Amino acid sequence: MNKSFTDDELRAALVEAAYLEGDFLLRSGKRSRYYLDKYRFETRPDLLRALGVRIAAAAREHAPRATRLAGPELGAVALAAAASLESGLPFLIVRKAAKEYGTGKRLEGLYDDGETVCLVEDVVTSGGALLESVEALREAGLTVETAICVVDREEGGADALALEAVRLFPIFRAGSLLGAVKSPAKPHG
């Protein structure tokens, strides 16, 4: 079924699918009382499709010069693929480290030197994964000015990216997403 979500419906569906309460250690090293489990929304075709549509629209609006999308492994790859299918823009996968076999690449996919890339990410806290991706993409001769994420936790990631001349455009901000939390807490597991 190809369901189209309004923004409010998508917000509620993301919370229902991925919002967990407890004590969580985030990639940034911070502890949090809540966690947005990206795999719970990225593995659902209905939500992935809706997010791909929104990311593609955000890329057209905020990164019109981009000729390619890029997503850090592993979490953002499905999102970048969904947005690529919707936008027609090819995408790159940014590995955490160059692989030690085969071609030994850090970037997977074809690109030309000097192209402009729009980064895609799932949840941004400090911006660490995106900053590492920006560095890898720029080292490869690509231009990165824009990143789009599903959720900005509003904990410094946008500011950290701005220091590297990258503007972050979230589909949702944690404040508005958490405002949709109305049901009893869901424990992780």
What topology does this entry show?
Layout: H1 7-18, E1 19-25, E2 31-36, H2 38-42, H3 45-62, E3 68-72, H4 77-87, E4 91-94, E5 107-108, E6 116-124, H5 128-139, E7 143-152, H6 157-162, E8 167-173, H7 174-178
Parallel strand pairs: 3-4, 3-6, 6-7, 7-8
Antiparallel strand pairs: 1-2, 4-5
Main sheet: strands, sense, barrel? 6 strands, mixed
What is the distance, rounded to the nearest whole angstrom, between the alpha carbons of the first and last residues?
28 Å
Over the alpha carbons, how many angstroms does the gyration radius reach? 16 Å
Order of helices and strands: HEEHHEHEEEHEHEH
Helix content: 25-40%
> Structural class of the secondary structure composition?
alpha/beta
Number of helices: 7
Our estimate of the beta-strand percent is 25-35%
Q: On the 0-100 scale, what is the average pLDDT?
A: 91
Shape verdict:
globular
Number of strands: 8
Low-confidence stretches: none
Question: Can you walk through the features of this model?
Answer:
It contains seven helices and eight strands. It is an alpha/beta fold and 189 residues long. The strands form two sheets. It has a six-stranded mixed β-sheet, sandwiched between helices. A two-stranded antiparallel sheet has the order 1-2. A hairpin with a 5-residue loop joins strand 1 and strand 2. The longest helix has 18 residues. The radius of gyration is 16 Å and the shape is globular. 38% of the residues are buried.
